[in-house]
Each structure stands twice: as structure tokens, then as C-alpha cells.
Amino acid sequence: MYAVIRTGGKQYRVAPGDTLKIERTAHENGIMEFSDVLAFSGEEGKFESELGGAKVTAQVLGEGRGEKILVFKLKRKKQYKKMQGHRQNFVEVKINEILVNGQTYKA
């Protein structure tokens, strides 16, 4: 079973027990709750049609910064070169449970 959630402008396919890195968002006491559930599948190839009150809870494992990405800009024949680095902040979370239509799916 798995669910598709949306957070930070991206969509993630999650299942209970999964760990993933998402963009940094606010969290309280090391617990995050995702209420924007786009899809849920309890069996292979079948999706729930009603997702009223569906939510996914996760535990925060840590925060950090990703790998450095180099951005290089060049305008040829104009002697213009610019190099810039970027490191994206992230939060690492572990999915604890998926709650859909009154049923709870845990790891």
C-alpha cells in the first residue's frame, strides 16, 4: 500500500516505513502531518475514490543541506562568465502511518 502526497511543490510516493528528504518545512516536536493526499492504493492497481480526511503522519529524523549544485552562465564572444553554487535545505522524515477513511496503515 502507498499514498501520493504533495509538499513543497513536489509530489512523493510514500509507504509506511519509508524515509525521504523533502524541502524544509515547519514541524512541531519532531512530528509532521501531511493532509494534501492526492491518491491512495491499498492493493496493486486499485485506487481509493474517496479520500475525505486522509492524512499521512511522519517523524522528523533530521535536517540538513543537500549536495552543492554549480550553475555556470556564459555568453560567448562577450567575455561574460558567471559561476554560482547552491545547496538546498531539506528535512529527512520517516513515514509512520497513513490514515484513509478511518483505516490506519502502519509500518
Spans with pLDDT under 50 lasting ≥5 residues?
Answer: none
Order of helices and strands: EEEEEEEEEE
Arithmetic mean of pLDDT = 92
The total tally of domains equals 1
Straight-line N-to-C gap: 10 Å
Helicity range of the residues?
under 10%
For the biggest sheet, the summary is:
5 strands, antiparallel
What percent of residues are in strands? Answer: over 45%
The assigned structural class equals mainly beta
The tally of helices reads 0
For this structure, the quaternary state is single chain
Radius of gyration, in Å, reads 19 Å
Shape: elongated
- How many β-strand stretches? 10
Secondary structure layout:
Blueprint: E1 2-7, E2 10-14, E3 19-23, E4 31-34, E5 37-41, E6 55-65, E7 69-75, E8 80-86, E9 89-100, E10 103-106
How would you describe the overall organization of this protein?
This is Large ribosomal subunit protein bL21. This protein is mainly β and 107 residues long. The protein has one domain. The protein is built from no helices and 10 strands. It is elongated and about 65 Å long.
Feature tags:
three-stranded antiparallel β-sheet, bL21-like, 0% helix, five-stranded antiparallel β-sheet, 107 residues, ribosomal protein
